[in-house]
């Protein structure tokens, strides 16, 4: 089943998170403060340590790994939608070490900011409700659910 919703870009928010902040929670806090319920997010910068995940499709669970030491945020991209009425960020991150080797995966709590500049683009639905997430039984993931207007 395909899920689709037409949206219009309403506004863009650019900013910087403080050193030592949790990257995911810091971005989530901006969404709450700016009342962003749907959108997209991107960021660049660096972290002092990270926690990233990989969804093990056979086990139906995330597997997390920790990365110790400084890394550059080569790319962070994701989307914003509602889960239980609160903004949820689903983002993937690519992190490079000093030799340019890249590790990447699902951004998880426990990723600590050294420096981070972000752009959030807030969307509004065209003629319907905002996208929200619920547990998808087929995959075991929190995915956009069937839309009710």
From TrEMBL:
GO molecular function terms attached to this record: DNA binding
Domain PPC: 7-147
Pfam entry (one): PCC
Coiled-coil ranges per UniProt: none
Keywords: DNA-binding
Record bears the keyword DNA-binding: yes
InterPro entries listed in its UniProt record: DNA_bp_PD1 (IPR025707), PPC_dom (IPR005175)
Keyword Transit peptide: no
Protein name, per record: DNA-binding protein
Organismal lineage: Bacteria, Pseudomonadati, Chlorobiota, Chlorobiia, Chlorobiales
């Amino acid at each position: 089943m395909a899920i689709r919703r037409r949206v219009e870009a309403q506004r863009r928010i650019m900013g910087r998170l403080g050193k030592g902040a949790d990257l995911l929670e810091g971005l989530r806090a901006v969404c709450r403060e700016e009342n962003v319920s749907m959108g997209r997010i991107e960021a660049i910068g660096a972290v002092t340590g990270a926690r990233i995940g990989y969804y093990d499709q056979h086990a139906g669970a995330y597997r997390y790994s920790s990365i110790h030491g400084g890394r550059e945020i080569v790319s962070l991209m994701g989307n914003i939608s509602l889960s239980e009425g609160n903004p949820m960020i689903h983002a993937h991150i690519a992190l490079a070490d000093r030799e340019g080797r890249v590790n990447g995966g699902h951004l998880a709590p426990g990723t600590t900011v050294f420096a981070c500049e972000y752009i959030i683009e807030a969307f509004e639905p065209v003629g319907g409700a905002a996208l929200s997430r619920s547990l998808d039984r087929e995959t075991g993931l929190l995915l956009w659910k069937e839309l009710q207007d």
